[in-house]
Amino acid sequence: QVQLVESGGGLVQPGGSLRLSCAASRNILLITSMAWYRQAPGKERELVADITRGGATNYADSVKGRFTISRDNAMNMMYLQMNSLKPEDTAVYYCNAYITTNNYWGQGTQVTVSS
Q1: pLDDT tens-digit readout, 47-106
Q2: Residue 75 CB partners (closer than 8 Å, separation 6+)
Q3: CA nearest 98: which of 44, 42, 46, 50?
């Protein structure tokens, strides 16, 4: 199994930026894929972006051009750089790791975008 710990959330004004980090307890090269999800109040959890062990990325249409997912395999870290933030980006953001047929989740970090 793998333990995941998110950090970097907080309060930011519209148009601002945040960088989220996810620290994994094992070599992320052994993880099939990793992803960032988010869940806003009253909404279902949705995929924000994902990245394979080889570095291929995918983004939700709502964040394309604004968010960038990346990973540092040597440090067992995954990141989400969020730019041009909008109020609708407000949510709890979760780090996800997929190994074989199992999903593992971090505890989440709150991102609030408000003026």
Answers
A1: 999 999 889 999 999 999 999 999 998 899 999 999 999 999 999 999 999 988 899 999
A2: none
A3: 50
Cβ distance 90 to 112 under 8 Å?
Answer: yes
> In 10 A of CB 24, how many CB atoms?
23
> Who contacts 54 (Cβ-Cβ below 8 Å, separation ≥6)?
none
C-alpha to C-alpha distance for 92 and 71, rounded to whole angstroms:
20
Cβ atoms of 93 and 38 within 8 Å: the answer is yes
Q: What is the DSSP string of 17-75?
A: -EEEEEEESS-GGGSSEEEEEEE-TTS--EEEEEEETT--EEE-TTTTTTEEEEEEGGG
